[in-house]
From TrEMBL:
GO terms for molecular function: signaling receptor activity. It comes from the Eukaryota. It is a peripheral membrane protein. It comes from Capitella teleta (Polychaete worm). InterPro entries: FA58C, Galactose-bd-like_sf, Neuropilin_MCO_CoagFactor. This is F5/8 type C domain-containing protein.
Length: 125
């Protein structure tokens, strides 16, 4: 299973924010996930890997009330991004947002998570 976003053109992605589904009987969220991406015109999906080229598994949510931000130290330049849930609470349901790297002011804030990067993030989706 996976969920995919088409950004309509290649964008520089610097982070992913996830949240739980809380308006259903019981709280549903994704605990861990992997990311794949693909540039415009490419036919092959690329797994997001760490600096050792090992498949990166991201920590998602562990409750129904906090938003989790995962910065991508190795930014993604892609049009298509897939999130592949690995473990989840009740059902693989989530809210997610891709954060674009820009040189402009911060337009999408996630409280309590200052960025150490020289880039700023703005919400894409």
């Amino acid at each position: 299973e996976w969920i995919e976003i088409d950004l309509l053109e290649n964008k520089l992605i610097g982070g992913i924010a996830t949240g739980a589904r809380t308006n259903y009987p019981g709280i549903q969220y994704v605990k861990t996930y992997n990311i794949q991406h693909r540039k415009e015109g490419a036919n092959t999906w690329v797994n997001y890997t760490d600096s050792s080229e090992k498949l990166q598994t991201f920590e998602g949510n562990h409750n129904g009330y906090e938003t989790v931000l995962n910065e991508l130290p190795r930014h993604i330049f892609a049009r298509y991004v897939r999130l592949l849930p690995l473990t989840f609470q009740q059902h693989p349901t989530l809210r997610w947002e891709l954060l674009e790297c820009t040189k402009s002011k911060l337009t999408a804030k996630i409280a309590a998570h200052p960025t150490s990067s020289t880039f700023r993030y703005s919400a894409l989706f």
